[in-house]
Amino acid sequence: MVLEAESDKIPFFKQYFSVIILAANVLVFIWQFTDPTGNMRIDYAFVPSEFFARQKLWTLLTSMFMHGDIIHIVMNMWFFIIVTDNCEHAMGHIVYIITYFASGLAGSLLHALSTVIIPVYGPILANIPSLGASGAIFGLMGVYIVYYPQNKFYLPSASGTSMRKVNAYYFIITYFIAELTYAIYSLYDPFGSSTAHFAHIGGFIAGIIIAGIAKAAKGTRKKT
After folding, report:
1. pLDDT (tens digit per residue) in 130-155
2. Which of 36, 59, 156, 164 gives 20 to 30 Å between its CA and that of 51?
3. How many other CB atoms sit within 10 Å of the CB of residue 24?
4. Domain count within the chain
5. What is the pTM of this model?
6. What gap in Å lies between CA 21 and CA 40, rounded to an integer?
């Protein structure tokens, strides 16, 4: 588990959209559990083949609040809580929520595109439902390193018996490179993982671009 090494003194519950998104993810997960078929409301997940057929386009949005199991949502929301308050505080509420959804959409779209470029098995993968907040959260990771590259995280050591402190830039870039490696490898072995790595890549790129533009625009306004 990743932990913030130092208190940033940013009150989480005053980051209103962050609170709403967290609550929405939890409530949707509970709603998924009420599915009488036991399929976790999978009809609301994003399916690339449906997207290309211009069917159920609303799943681009609903899939961002769904999760496959308890581990999936706990891991996503844990890291969401760590980074989201900083991001919303730095960007402002409106730019933050635009960035969150834009990152999630970019993640789903790149994931869909990956099913087109993967040889042989692409059409099969295009029919597999995709769900989770990971694309949007990777977008927040991109935002975080633009605004807080020197913040510190605690990570478990290799032995797991202690924690080591690293700066945010090192951790997030290393994590992104790992995801990029997995994504490229999935072109050759698409069934080696059930994770939509290209969704993570798309979300991260969208987040870092929007954050870079927002930060530059803010600096320009201050100078004029």
Report:
1. 999 999 999 999 999 999 999 999 99
2. 36
3. 13
4. 1
5. 0.93
6. 19
